[in-house]
Amino acid sequence: MAAKWKHSDKGKEEMQYAVGWSGSLNVEEGECVSSVLCIPLASQKRSSTGRPDWTCIVVGFTSGYVRFYTESGVLLLAQLLNEDPVLQLKCRTYEIPRHPGVTEQNEELSILYPAAIVTIDGFSLFQSLRACRNQVARAAASGNENVQPPPLAYKKWGLQDVDTIVDHASIGIMTLCPFDQMKTASNIGGYNAAIKNSPPAMSQYVTVGANPFAGFFFALEGSSQPLLSHVALAVASKLTSALFNAASGWLGWKSKHEEEPVQKQKPKVEPATPLAVRFGLPDSRRHGERICLSPCNTLAAVTDEFGRVILLDVTRGLAVRMWKGYRDAEVGWIQTVEDLQERETEKMDSSPFGNAQGPSRVAQFLVIYAPRRGILEVWSTQQGPRVGAFNVGKYCRLLYPGYKIMGLNNVTSQGWQPQTYQICLVDPVSGIVKTVHVPFHLALSDKKSERAKDMHLVKKLNALLKAKTSDSDLIEAEAKELILDIKYPATKKQALESILTSEHVPLSSLTSITQTLMDNLKKQELECVDEGLMQFCANKLKLLHLYELVSKLNSQSIQKETSPSDNDLAKLLRLEEKDFHRLETLLENYKKENTKTTTQLTDEKDDTLSVKMFLEYLEYEKDVITVKNMEDGEYVALGSFFFWKCLCGESSTEEMCHALESAGFSPQTLLSLLLNLWLSKEKDILDKPDSVSCLHTMLSLLSKMKVAIDESWDTQSVSPWWQQMRTACVQSENNGAALLSAHVGHSVTAQIIDSVTEKKFSKIVVGSDTESWEALSLDTEYWKLLLKQLEDCLILQTLLHSKVTKRTKRVSSLQTEPLGRLSVKKLLEAGKGGIADMVAKWVFKQGFSPIILNVAQYKNNTDSTEESVEVQNNLFLEEPESDTGLERILELLQVAYQQFPCSLEVDVVHAHCSWECVVQWNKDPEVTKFHLQGSVIVLGIALMMWNTFIVKRLSSATYLMDKDVGMSDTAMTAFLGCCSELLQTLLEADVTSDEMQAPVLDTEDAWVSVEGPVSIVELALEQKRIHYPLVEHQFVLCTILYAIMRLSLKSVKPLSLFDSKGKNAFFKDLTSIQLLPSGDMDPNMLSIRQQFLLKIVSAAVQTLCSSQKDKEVSEEELFPFEKGKNWPTLAADLAQYLQISEDLVRRHYVCELYSYGMDHLGEEAFLQVADKEVLASQLLVLAGQRLAFALLHGQIKEGMDFLTRLPPTLCTWLKAMDPQEIQNVEVPIATTAKLVSKVIEHLPENHGQYSLALNLIEAVEAIPACCAE
């Protein structure tokens, strides 16, 4: 299983474990998996952050094989080191020695067999696994590498004098102290034993099982030489069999003369070096089950079948503790390192040269999971108490690997942050993986640990704060008592933070508690006082006093001034009356359209903010208040608390600004809060015109604060203060509020500049008339530019929010997706075509035909005469559903055209509409159709559409005509029709392109600085000219495909109508020159083409006949581009391309019309036929079939009698006729008579069938008389 970030049911991102790979691993018959181990391998890259490069899965089998796999189940190498079943796999990874005297332990993998133990050197294993993995990657890529992975170095010990072994622990290399060395030598060699000067290094192993219950083995280093294995590398890939057969011996395993692969030969198994048990814990009735070594390699926990957990001291070989009543227990260890900052400060004379605190201490905790009781316990070792217990369920698994990442050493492990868990608990019922964290102070004894007492007080305080009680005085008194009892400053701070973040404690209590703690700290001696805590209390007190003051100012209601008139507002904003009324109109339109699309939830208590939130949002440091990084909503809430009452005119603006400045807020922070509030409350502001004058007052006050506007600022430089305000307006998506705030900013800027200029010039020019002067400055010019941009953005946003109020047709889900809101910044970054692109998206979302763009332009350019109204009405008929609110939309479009004469040039917008249509079609081919609107740029746009979206799908549709290509039949038919239309447009545009001039792509002055992607129109104009014959060739294929789908022609293979040259030329770049079919075509090919064209004509006539019988509107809805499409004419045009006689197709069309009894249409089509003589002879047969049916099948009474009166030649001819060949036999005799007359008219007298035709006309004319008799 592998960890992956996924969305949970609650919508949050969380880590989940998912199955990475599953499958069967057994290679030999009857073998089973007996042990599994995951070893994370370290990355060799210097930039690695501590995560493993990859994980090797080691699997032991009952056959004795140990196999190594990648995470995806690819076999890397297999080893048979012993022929007995593998009992247990364990791993040890590198740990930095904690003390200089501790022996450095090497990495190793140990494999336990029933009577042997094999240890593989970690470095050797790491290198082999990396080599094998690289080899597999190369084999999968090429299969021609020949790299032999290095052999594994291992030791194999035969464990003697033990009855049964179930589990083991490899303690590592140890060195005895001199006393233990002499004691051991005496026990083994007796009184005269020789003792070496230096104690020998030994590898220690501990086994558990029976007789002895725990056995201790010591292998002297150097007593057995490491064995080298022959690595059996296997590439678990489907490619391997082919690779091995193709390149014999490419990995050096098989020579040219060998027929049998090496894998089938059983590897040689080396004999084990005997190793006797030195001593053990003899207990004949006790059988050990599991052993778990502590991280410091000094202790081990052993479980037995009596339900005991025994703690072993592995260095001394003693059982030091026993826990009872833990049947089927699972054990693990947690090692916790002390945080030096939390160490208890002891009063001691510290040396100036040494560290008074010393190195970090380490504590070991034993974790025991008792599944019978469903409890997880944490014990302090060796003799410590139980420090934690959790109810976890009875079906969990405790996972304790006992190792970290393989591949580190004393250099690479420096500064390495481990990314593995020490221990975790898997709950299969809930599917949750839990980890256990134990704080270091729990290892300290209760009597000495003041921290434990402090933690207890903090818990008590938290319980008090959560208690449901209305007596705030009681809470305050208890909280004071508890916080003063706490000893450690860090814990005091933690307790105070808990109180300040509580929602139940009132402001007065918070102030009182903080003040009490502050006073208590002041009474203490200076050396004992923690300066950080003192400063923390002082800062929080200042914030609490500020909150109290702001709340008081908000609650004091002042008398509202009378609302300013329009004249007053115009003067305030320095606008002419005409400009002010225009601004009002624009905002009114914007407000109307904006309320349709957005609903704003307004909070009644806008000016209230809880103390908890207030303290969370602000930080007080060095007499300055800063606002923390937070979400937009929280930023607005803080700004609302300070300024909303002032903006509504319900609170004193001067007092509020003075209070905030005195508290330590910078003017820039206050401006940011004010603008965020203003821009977010757009709906309320547009409803309250007097808020503009309040904003003007507040902005003037903020601008006069110290350090707001730099003293060195002059009219020729840009002030960062005003630039901050302009940046906020540029980024805002609430264009109405942004435009108003920009007008206010411009007005205040001009006011300040005037006062500065007046001071300068009053000294120079005394008594002159300066009122009519307008001081120019760089900031004023920037404001004017921004006002123009914001106005443009507002007009465009108003248009994009407008929509028809009634939609009857089916709407695509793509059309219901809302358009994003605009800002000046977005438009500046959208590139030159950004504005046209927005309008195109709006046209698509509303389901308009792009013709609406022409209507608005037409209205702009002409007076509304009767003629223009008639034209508009005709255009509206194409959009029957868009009858509601269209006039309003056209007005908004006209305003947008006036505002953006260059960006919204009609041809440019049409090009963007075409592109948007095909982009949306590509997302949902089932609902959307794409089309091209004629314009100058159409050639390039059509070519881009073809190359980007269409050619791949069309290619798939052609080659998989009878198979699923991801579209329904209806969508496919529409798609092929659109393709045909697109190519026809390309051909027409290429012919007329020389006559038309390319448009000049200008930009409005306010938007010259736009940056971003190249516009679609610029790309379109850069496209190469098409190769006309190639497009024509592709058009023929498209039309054929469309005919097949539209007319439901069966068993037609479109590509069979073309030779190899023709097939090769399809779907190539339309601007390239390809080799096209030329000269005479194969007669068989021509025959197939002729049959196909006649099929089209027959199917078209059949469709025409059935549609006349029952009028179907749905066809036109599905294929709107088919209006006026004449399939027989199209077939005749195709005939010209396909080298088939056009007249033959037309004659077949006439015959089919008469066959279906549509003689009136047949007479019209007759006129287009060139060879009327051949057609007349064909129609003569058809007339004969009609008469034969009338006489022989009972349409006329006494038909057989009448037949006998006819000339013998005619009689025989009529009897030979088959009336079933014609589709409609129920045709009046008079109509048939008219047909025969037409035949005689076009048959020459010397024609072989002329006499037969004369006899036939006499017979037909005689029938009515016969019937009358």
Automatic annotation (TrEMBL):
Entry keyword set = Coiled coil, Cytoplasm, GTPase activation
Q: Which GO terms describe its cellular component?
A: cytoplasm
Q: Name one Pfam family in it.
A: RAB3GAP2_N
Question: What are the recorded GO MF terms, alphabetically?
Answer: GTPase activator activity
Recorded coiled-coil stretches: 573-607
According to the entry, every stretch annotated as the Rab3GAP regulatory subunit C-terminal domain falls at 670-1244
Domain (Rab3-GAP regulatory subunit N-terminal) ranges: 4-399
Query: Do you know which InterPro entries this protein is assigned to?
Result: Rab3GAP2, RAB3GAP2_C, RAB3GAP_N
Where found, per UniProt? Answer: Cytoplasm
By sequence similarity, the record places it as follows: Belongs to the Rab3-GAP regulatory subunit family.
Supply the PANTHER family for this chain. Answer: RAB3 GTPASE-ACTIVATING PROTEIN NON-CATALYTIC SUBUNIT, RAB3-GAP REGULATORY DOMAIN
Q: What is this protein called?
A: RAB3 GTPase activating non-catalytic protein subunit 2
Organism for this UniProt entry: Malurus cyaneus samueli
